[in-house]
């Protein structure tokens, strides 16, 4: 079963991204939204962990929140894909279920 993991925020006290990464399986998709989108930026502490994920785990960043925070596709790690809301919907269609980490 392919799972879409949506990470909504970054938190130092209880990092949702760390819990999510420990739960990812091959073939899953990871979508970073809102405050969690920073993790996919070059130089971020979590960027290397995202780059080290298996090749068949999709790493996506929602364009609307990341654009509002000053992100652009050029500032993302190479494997991260910038998706718009329609791309978000497409991910929900190709994945069997979704989990939101916040």
Task: Describe the protein's architecture and organization.
The protein is α/β, with parallel strands linked by helices and 102 residues long. The chain is built from four helices and five strands, in the order βαβαβαβαβ. The chain has one domain: 3-Layer(aba) Sandwich (Hypothetical Protein Ychn, Chain: A). The model has no long low-confidence stretch (mean pLDDT 88).
How do you describe this structure in short?
This protein has four helices and five strands. The chain has helices spanning 16-23, 47-51, 63-68, 85-94, and strands at 3-7, 29-32, 58-62, 80-83, 97-101.
Count of separate DSSP helical elements? 4
CATH domain topology: Hypothetical Protein Ychn, Chain: A
The biggest sheet, with number of strands, parallel, antiparallel or mixed sense and barrel status, is: 5 strands, parallel
Indicate the proportion of strand residues: 15-25%
Counted beta strands: 5
Order of SSEs: EHEHEHEHE
Q: Which homologous superfamily in CATH is the superfamily? A: DsrEFH-like
User: How much helical structure, as a percent, in the residues?
Assistant: 25-40%
């Amino acid at each position: 079963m392919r799972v879409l993991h949506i990470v909504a925020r970054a938190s130092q006290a209880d990092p949702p991204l760390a819990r999510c990464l420990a739960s990812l399986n091959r073939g899953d998709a990871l979508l970073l939204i809102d405050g969690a989108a920073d993790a996919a930026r070059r130089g971020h502490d979590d960027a290397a962990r995202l780059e080290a994920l298996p090749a068949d785990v999709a790493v996506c960043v929602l364009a609307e929140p990341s654009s509002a925070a000053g992100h652009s596709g050029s500032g993302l790690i190479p494997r991260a894909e910038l998706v718009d809301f329609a791309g978000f919907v497409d991910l929900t269609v190709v994945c069997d279920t979704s989990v939101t980490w916040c």
